[in-house]
Please model this.
Amino acid sequence: MNKVLLVDDDHELVDFLSAALSEKGWQVQTAYNAEEAYHSSQHNRPDVIVLDIHMPAGGGKTALERMRTSHVSYDIPVLLMSADVDTAMSPELRKLHPNGFIRKPLETERLHLALMRLIEGKLA
Model:
C-alpha cells in the first residue's frame, strides 16, 4: 500500500482528500502546517507528498526547502498544490525541484492519477 502525506491548513480539504484517497487504497498521513509536514516526512517516510504552498508556520516553500536538504526526505516526490499558479511556477519554488503541481480546487481522480504517475516514476 502506497503512503501519501497530505499537507494543507484547510482541515476540511484534508479530510475530504484523505477519505477519497483511502478509498483508492492509499495509506494517508496528514499535516496542517509546514512544521508538521517536515516532522512527518522525517519520521513516517511517505512514498509521496502533496504539499500546499500557502500555509502557516512557514508555508509549503519552507517545508520543501527543509525536506530537500534532509538525508531522510530529499528524494521523496512532492506534488505542490495551490490555487495560485504564478507562485507555484516561480523560479524560487522551481529551484527546490518539486515533482509536479496540481491546481486547486482539486478533482480527486486527477490527484490520484498524478500521485500514481509519481509513484511509477519513482519505481522506474
